[in-house]
Amino acid sequence: MNDVAHDNDVDTLRKVIVVNCSQTRYHVVRAAAVALGWYVEDENREDVPATFYGVALQSDVRLLTKRLVPRGLSYDAGSSPQIQWLDKSVLPSRVAALSCHHRVNHFPVMHVVARKAVLFKRLMRIRRQLKVDSALGAAMRGFPWSFSASTELRQLEQFLRDQQQQQQQQQSPRSELFFILKPNRGCQGKGIVLTPEPLQALETLTGKDGEEWLVQLYVTPPLCIELKKFDLRIYVLLTSVVAGRPPRLRRRGMSQPFRPAASAGSAGLLDGLQLFVHHEGLVRICAEEYAAPSRTSCGQVRVHLTNYAVNKSAEGFSVGVARETSDGAVCEGNKRDFKFLQHYINALPDQEHDVHSPAEAAAVTRWECLLRRIDLCVMLTMLSGLEELRREFIGTGASRGSRSDGRNCFELLGFDFMLTEDLEPVLMEVNHSPSLFCDSAFDFETKRRVVMDVFRLLEPHVPSLEACDDAAYAAYQATPHAVASSETVGFRQISPQRTSAATAGSDDGQWFEEEMRMFEEILRLTRVR
Fold this sequence. Notes:
One of its GO terms (biological process) is microtubule cytoskeleton organization. The protein has a domain at 145-218: Dna Ligase, domain 1, CATH 3.30.1490. It contains 16 helices and 18 strands. The protein has helices at 27-35, 62-68, 92-96, 111-114, 116-128, 135-139, 153-169, 198-205, 301-304, 308-311, 338-346, 358-361, 366-395, 441-458, 470-477, 513-525; strands at 2-3, 18-23, 39-41, 51-52, 55-56, 83-86, 103-104, 146-148, 179-183, 193-195, 213-217, 224-225, 228-240, 274-285, 335-336, 411-419, 425-431, 491-495. Strands 12, 13, 14, 15, 16, 17 and 18 form a seven-stranded antiparallel β-sheet that branches. It has a five-stranded mixed β-sheet with strand order 1-3-2-6-7, covered by helices on one side. A four-stranded antiparallel β-sheet has the order 8-11-9-10, with helices on both faces. The termini are far apart.
C-alpha cells in the first residue's frame, strides 16, 4: 500500500480515495494518484519502485486504518479501493459484480471502438450509405477507405476496379494507390505492410497465425514537420454512456429499473454520453524524411510509419526536451507537445484551406479549426459504437438500483490521427489501453497531467472511503458537488455539449445545428443493417 501523506495522521476532513494499481504496469498512474493526495493499493507487489521520476510512491498503510477503525470499519485491499486501474479489458461479468462506489477504467465491449477491423467495418458501412456531397459524407472522409480481409474482399476488389476506371477516365495520370495492411490485434507497428497490391499481399498473409487483417487506403500527402511525416496521440476520456440519476434506496430487495432520460429532438440527442478530449497530447515524428510511397520505397517503415516503437531505435531519434517558446513548448526531437503543434499550425504559410461548415468558418485560427475537426471525428467514432456500448453496460445492471447513476466505468482512450496537407484529420486507430510507459521526463510529465485530470473529473462522484455503503453512497450522490471545470482540468468536454478548449485562443465551443444533425444521422445509420 502506498500513499502521499507524510504526517502521522490523516486529515479527517479530507476525502480519502484509494486507487488499486495492482494490475497495471504503469507507474505514472500511481504517480498521478500520489500527486493528488490519494492512496495507491498495490497488494504487496514487489516490482513497484520507491520513486518514479522523483515522485515517492512508498508510505504507511496505518494512516488509513487509523481513520477507519474509530468508525467501526475495516480495510480490505481487494474490495475497499474505490478506483481500479487495469491494463486489460473487462468482461461484463466483472462490471456486474461491482458495488455502487467502485470505478473501473474500462467499459465492457470497448472492442466495438478499439478493434480496428470491427470499428472500420462499421464506419465503412455507414460511409457507403452517404452521398459524397452531404455534410456527414464529407465528415466521413476522416475515416480512410478500409476493408476486412476476412469478410470484405469483394468490396476491396470493386474499390480497386472503380479506382482503375476513374484513373483511365482522367486525362492526367494519377499516382499509384497504396494500401496499408494492419493485423487487427496488432500494436506498435508490428506486422504492418505497405503495398500497391493488397490482394496479392493478402494471399501470403491471410491465415498467418490466425490473424485477421484490415486493408486501408494509404492517405497522401501528409502534413509534415521538418519534411517528416507525423501523427497525433489524442487522449479521450469517456465517463458515461447512459443518462443516469442519483441512486434512491427502496425497500430491501427492490431495485429501480433503468429508464433513460426523456429527450426532445437534438436537445436530448447526446444525453448520457459524457466525453472529453485532453488539450495535451503527443506529436510523434518519423525518424526519416517523407517521400511518396513507391514500389521500391514502401518497405521503408521509418518513412511511412509513425509508431514510436518503429522509430525509437533509429540513429538521431530523440524525445523533445528543448523549451524555447514563452509558453514552454517542446520544439525539438521526434516527440513533441501540442503547444508546439499549435504554434506550428498557426504559423503555416498563408494558403486557402477548405471550410466545411459555418462552425469552421467561425474559427479564428487554423488551430481552432483543426481542434473542431478532431472533436467531430472523435464524436462520430464514439457515436458509431454507442448503441452497443450502452446496451452492454445496461445489461450488467450498472445503471439501476444503487448504481442508477451509471458511473461504474470510465475509459481513457488513445485516438491516433495523421493530418493531411489540407489540415484534415484522418483516424488511424483507437487504443482502448493507450501506452502510459514513460521513456523520458517529457513522457512522464505529459501523461501524469492527463491521468491526474482523469482523476479530477472522477473525484466529485467518488465518495470518501468511509462512506461507501449503499445508503451513504445514495446520500452522497444526492448532494450537489462542485464539478471540475475546463479552467482547472485539461479536458474540454465534447458531449453532451461542447465547451471551450482549455488552451488560450480556443474556439467558442458549442456544437452547431448542422453538426447535431450529423450526430443524429450517424446514430440512425448505426441501426440500419
